[in-house]
Amino acid sequence: MTTRADSVPVREARTPHAPEHTSADNARSRRRRLRRVLGITCVLVLLGAITFWLALHRIPAWYRPTSLADEHVADVRFEATAWVDWISDQMVQGRPFTIELTEAQANRLLAGVRRDGRDSGGSWPAAFDAPAVAFLTDELRVGAILRRKGDHVVVSAGLRLRASPDDPELRVRLDAVRAGVVTLPAFLWTGEVRSWLERTADASSSRSASTDSLRSVLSGLDDPEALARDGFPLRNRFRWPNGNRAFAVDNVEIAPGRCRILIRPL
Question: Fewer CB atoms near the end CB (10 Å): N or C, the chain?
């Protein structure tokens, strides 16, 4: 006779401390992940700050100011006088004429104006140094080194000009304001520009000069987005100081390295 043994189910032994070890391991794992995330975040923030600093202090490729040696100052002044005399002669003749200017010529004349302003104690802004212009495709880029609190960066602005003999206004659109190669938001520069223009307008008023253009720019600063999108109008009627002759700008053509301005005496 065969006896069948009752089968006894085998249960897994449970260690009462196992859940505690698992919770501790999970906590340590979470702390390691948190430290790793914080470390990566710090590295990314540091890299971002370094990248921004380098971009802010980068010298744009177009920025090539002219430096005048003492022996060349007289030559540039003579060149500027020749330009003034030639334009004055064209105004007297009363026929439309074209001013053609290369980028190199413009920067030489600008360096001479800056030198005269500094030497005579004029109103050249003390914080700005080494001004330069660049003629790009349909854009005039102007810039200078801004020195402040022991640091210096190249600040610049792009201008696009549109003129027509059938339009009584000259339209000027602000393309971008940059520090280095970083585009600056409007709130960082409108206050400084407004302060400088107001001082210039007040000085112009004291000399009984027309301030319509400056007032137009000041009103445009109330809406910087519109200023960049639509530009601001300038009355297309100016006066040449030598002989007090009125004139209008019929066309402005800006191409890489050169600029052509069509002038119509009135």
Answer: N
Q: In this structure, what token pair is assigned to residue 107? A: 């920067």
pLDDT tens-place string over residues 22-40: 777 777 777 788 888 888 8
How far is it, in rounded angstroms, from Cα 16 to Cα 19?
A: 7
* Of 82, 56, 64, 49, nearest in space to 130 by CA: 64
Q: Measured between alpha carbons, how far is residue 225 from residues 23, 83, 182, 212 in Å?
A: 56, 37, 17, 21
Distance CA 50, CA 31 (A): 28
Q: What is the band of 133 on the pLDDT scale with cuts at 50, 70, 90?
A: very high
DSSP string, 187-238: GGTHHHHHHHHHHHHHHHHHTT---HHHHHHHHHTT-HHHHHHT-EEEES-E
Contact partners, residue 244, CB within 8 Å, separation at least 6 = none
Compute the distance between CA of residue 178 and CA of residue 186 in angstroms, rounded to an integer.
10
- Chain-centre distance of CA 19, in angstroms? 63
Q: Measured in Å, how far apart are the chain's first and last C-alpha atoms?
A: 136
Task: Decide if pLDDT at 46 tops 50.
Answer: yes
pLDDT score, position 19: 54
- Distances in Å between the Cα of 63 and the Cα atoms of 36, 73, 110, 177 are 43, 21, 13, 14
